[in-house]
Amino acid sequence: MRPSQAAVAAHDRGEASRAREVAAVADGIAPRQRALEVLLARTGLRISEALGLQVGDVDFLRGSLRVERQRDSRADGFIPPKTRSSARTVPLGQVVVDELAAHLAMYGGGPDGSIFTDDLGRPLTYTAWKPLWKATGTSYKTHDLRHYAASALIAGGASVKQVQMMLVTQRPQSPSACTRTSGRATTSAHGPS
Asked: Which of 81, 128, 163, 170 is the most exposed place for a label (fewest CB within 10 A)?
């Protein structure tokens, strides 16, 4: 059954509203963490994968990054990706490439090569990230940006299979599954990265 025109229009208004909220979070988060929020919203990486990125994992010329590890949330250091297929190359849109380049020009990498660091230059951990995210006042959880990215990719013309491969989901998600409603907010997306 096809949705009515009114339902489609309401969905589009909701998507535009969510896109504005994600943009507002990027504008409202501490400048040092802006690139991390943009990366999560535009690629759908897991927070542990993003925190595990090192400078050498990003290919600025080809517009891609390689997920090789994730930051261990229980200890200081790295662990292998969640699954074997989680080690992957992820394409980056120009917005993400520009954000990462500006971030590294401003802050440099951490002592272990980590892209994302705290105010003292130490690798950023999930424990340190959580209060920074909460301070934005958003109702979204960091993981909701994964769903936002999936919806954005589908809205931009990617197939469900392509999104599944990029995000390394365990099961295929229909477009309606990527527009997930929870008690916090409806997480969907507008436009590709």
From this structure: 170
Nearest to 102 by CA among 40, 44, 33: 33
C-alpha 53/C-alpha 36 separation (Å) is 10
Question: How many Å apart are CA 142 and CA 130, to the nearest integer?
Answer: 9
CA torsion through residues 109, 115, 121, 123, sign: negative
3-state secondary structure of 125: coil
User: What's the one-letter identity of residue 152?
Assistant: A
Backbone φ and ψ for 117, nearest 5 degrees, come out as -130, 165
Closest CA to 193 of 32, 44, 85, 60: 44
- How many of the other CB atoms lie within 10 Å of CB of 138? 20
Whether the full predicted model's pTM is greater than 0.85, yes or no, is: no
DSSP assigned state of 124: P
From the list 37, 50, 54, 49, the residue with the least C-alpha distance to 104 is: 54
CB 188, CB 148: distance < 8 Å: yes
Identify the segments of the chain with pLDDT beneath 70.
1-18, 170-193
Helix (H, G, I), strand (E, B) or coil at 182: coil
Predicted pLDDT at 24: 82
Coil, strand or helix: which one is 178? helix
**Residue 2, φ and ψ in degrees, nearest 5:** -85, 145
